[in-house]
Design a protein that fits this description.
By secondary structure, the protein is an all-alpha fold. It has helices spanning 4-12, 23-39, 45-63. The protein is 70% helix and 0% strand. It is globular, with a radius of gyration of 11 Å.
Length: 64
């Protein structure tokens, strides 16, 4: 997992599609969803950490 698109594909594997029209809101919702998947044991820690890192980077890009 190396990109925002990869995180979207990860979520799609679980039937989750997030699109609000605003990138910052998408990132927030995706963070919550990834955290929930990890808490339920549906994704491994490594994938969770990679996804969080990618989403944090996207959040930082959206601010600038």
């Amino acid at each position: 997992m190396n990109s925002f698109y990869d995180v979207q594909q990860l979520l799609r594997q679980f039937g989750t599609v997030i699109y609000t029209g605003k990138r910052s809101q998408d990132v927030e919702l995706m963070e919550a969803e990834v955290s929930e998947l990890h808490a339920m044991g549906m994704i491994e820690r490594e994938n969770f950490l990679k996804a969080r890192t990618i989403l944090l980077e996207e959040k930082r890009k959206a601010r600038s």
